[in-house]
Q: What sequence folds into this?
């Protein structure tokens, strides 16, 4: 999957949880949880959705990195190629 | 043979409209099967039956609004119909308000009147088409999706639906969205008026914008009615207790370190489990107060107060929370909150809560104290888990901690019992491995 595919996928997963998210105004370099109101349940559901879509596991130790959408996409891109059947 | 009645969907809903029947006469149903979708001021919910049987008759047509307690489905016995349902429910006979009785009568007289509801009638706030509500992918929107009441209201005021931002599930335009659009369109006073009045020398100041008071939408009205009733009828007392979570958070981090994201446990799961286990020893906080009489309930169904996107609250229950493993409770918590926000909550989940728990989450505030949902008699609150200075044995440390609160019905319990109950929750959280 290309980085663009992963970004689109992440935004779709986000919109399933937060339908008001506007892909055109969402900033990739700003903390996601400052732009979108997501509590801990929403956040975990989002990470699980990313895992289900890409096959990439997201261990808790890595969670601290996933602050911005850019960081999420970069994390998935680095691992998506080698994941899954 | 028995009549299945429109279930109570919580203290804040006393009437509901059957939107769609999902069974027909002759269908065999098991306990828990969803037989209809109903719509209230707070959204659309699935109605599940409490016992097995064969559908003999649908007693209410789709589109008809009925009071809670009205028979809606006739069930005949099957050969395998056994014991009555084990899940105790609060009495469904909430007396209908005069307005609701009048509405039900009006509908019986003219079933097609559902289509002729006035645009400002607070019937529908967040209706979502059933297939979209259940499907996971957010499909491209071919046209603007709006609830029927929003559509009628927009048409009545010559508003383009496409220009209105939708805040319902999956971006559905709700009645509240149309009201907001109307209010902002007609609000500002002419800017020149104030300048003309002030005279020439002063720089012109724009007149203050006056927003005409918008009627409260259905969700807001439902919540307002419920909390007003709660505060009017239930004499609340309030307690607060700070709980050291050093052991709990350390255990959680160690447990989660070796787990995939799909099995990650949330801190909230530990809090809910501790609450549910503590209730086993304190039945005076787990039951229903009805008609001047308190009835404790053996089963423990914890209502999870969930804030909805775009405003509003739902508090669906996790059944038998004290008997679920942490993994199952965690999965149930993630699932019920997701469905509360995206659709798919069942009537039994709304009706069965024996106590509620509220938390403003990990980006919230230090403490939160809830308002009791009648006919329940208590609500526990958990603030944000955060590091705090912690004094112990003359020494100062920094530890993760949470403030737990209890609001309880003083007709049923006193502060002493409340204090014991709250400290019991704190004690259970000191031994997370045993939860």
A:
């Amino acid at each position: 999957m290309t980085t663009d595919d992963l970004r689109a996928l992440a935004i779709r997963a986000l919109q399933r949880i937060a339908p008001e998210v506007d892909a055109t105004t969402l900033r990739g370099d700003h903390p996601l949880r400052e732009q979108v109101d997501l509590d801990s349940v929403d956040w975990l559901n989002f990470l699980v959705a990313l895992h289900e879509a890409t096959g990439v596991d997201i261990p808790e130790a890595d969670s601290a990195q996933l602050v911005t959408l850019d960081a999420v996409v970069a994390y998935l891109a680095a691992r998506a190629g080698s994941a899954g059947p | 043979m028995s009549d299945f009645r429109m279930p109570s969907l919580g203290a804040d809903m006393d009437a509901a409209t059957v939107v769609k029947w999902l069974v027909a006469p002759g269908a065999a149903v098991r306990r828990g099967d969803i037989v209809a979708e109903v719509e209230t001021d707070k959204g659309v919910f699935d109605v599940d039956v409490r016992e097995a049987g064969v559908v003999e008759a649908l007693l209410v047509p789709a589109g008809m609004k009925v009071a809670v307690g009205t028979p809606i489905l006739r069930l005949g016995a099957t050969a395998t119909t056994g014991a009555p349902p084990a899940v105790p429910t609060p009495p469904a006979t909430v007396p209908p308000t005069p307005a609701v009785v009048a509405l039900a009568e009006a509908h019986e007289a003219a079933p097609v009147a559902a289509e002729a509801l006035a645009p400002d009638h607070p019937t529908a706030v967040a209706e979502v088409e059933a297939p979209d509500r259940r499907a996971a992918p957010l499909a491209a929107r071919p046209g603007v999706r709006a609830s029927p009441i929003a559509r009628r209201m927009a048409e009545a005021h010559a508003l383009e639906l496409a220009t209105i931002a939708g805040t319902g599930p999956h971006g559905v335009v709700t009645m509240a969205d149309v009201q907001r659009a109307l209010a902002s369109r007609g609000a500002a006073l002419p800017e020149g008026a104030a300048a003309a009045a002030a005279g020439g020398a002063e720089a012109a100041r724009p007149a203050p914008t006056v927003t005409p008071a918008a009627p409260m939408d259905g969700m807001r009205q439902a919540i307002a009615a419920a909390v007003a009733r709660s505060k009017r009828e239930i004499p609340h007392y309030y307690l607060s207790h700070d709980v050291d979570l050093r052991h709990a958070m350390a255990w959680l981090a160690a447990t989660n370190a070796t787990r995939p994201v799909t099995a990650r446990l949330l801190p909230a799961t530990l809090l809910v489990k501790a609450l549910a286990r503590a209730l086993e020893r304190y039945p005076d906080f787990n039951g229903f107060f009805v008609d001047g009489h308190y009835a404790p309930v053996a089963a423990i169904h914890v209502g999870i107060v969930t804030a909805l996107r775009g405003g509003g609250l739902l508090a669906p229950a996790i059944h038998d929370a004290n008997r679920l493993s942490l993994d199952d409770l965690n999965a149930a918590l993630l699932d019920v909150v997701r469905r509360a926000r995206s659709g798919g909550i069942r009537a039994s989940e709304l009706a069965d809560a024996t106590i509620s728990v509220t938390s403003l989450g990990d980006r919230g505030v230090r403490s939160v104290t809830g308002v009791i949902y009648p006919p329940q008699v208590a609500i526990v609150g958990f603030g944000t888990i955060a590091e705090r200075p912690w004094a112990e044995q003359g020494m100062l440390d920094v530890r993760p901690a949470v403030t737990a609160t209890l609001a309880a019905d003083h007709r049923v319990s006193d502060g002493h019992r409340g204090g014991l109950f709250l400290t019991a929750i704190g004690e259970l959280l000191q031994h997370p491995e045993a939860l």
The mean pLDDT of chain A is 90. The helical segments of chain A are 3-17, 32-35, 40-54, 69-80.
